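Morning F.,

Quick status update on the modeling queue. The single chain you submitted on Monday has been processed. Sequence for confirmation:
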Amino acid sequence: MSKKIAKTAIIAGLYFVLTVAIAPLSYGVVQFRFSECLTVLAIFYPEAVVGLTVGCFFSNLFGNGILDIVFGTLATFLSSFLTYIISKKLRNIGLKTLVCILLNVILNAVLVPITFMSFSNVWHTYFFGMLTVFLGQTAVLCTLGVLVSLAINKFHNKTDYI
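Structure tokens below.
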């Protein structure tokens, strides 16, 4: 197995395990999906885009149904893909991490609440979902995401193995 395929599989597996292992916190209107801290990997590795998307897809099979599978996975794909593309053009790790956080928070806050509409067609549910997803994503990415980004950046500056 090539290193890129292995990296993709490891990222997908980590995302899945981190999501399902804390399932009560990972799903629903109020969610703290700790696996979202891995989205910063798209700053460093192109394989992360596919790994995160696959991990999210399989995680969402345990979520809120087909809308969660489609829109939740779409949010992860778009945010990780855009993070990778934009990060290639930036040099500063702090700016790269900030862009990643903003993309993830905004795209998830807009797309993920659509999954809640399958339970209620009341629009205030959507806007409340936007707020709660925004807060959960911000909390996870501004803490764990920043730590992961800084740790990997430090690792990259010490070795040539990855």
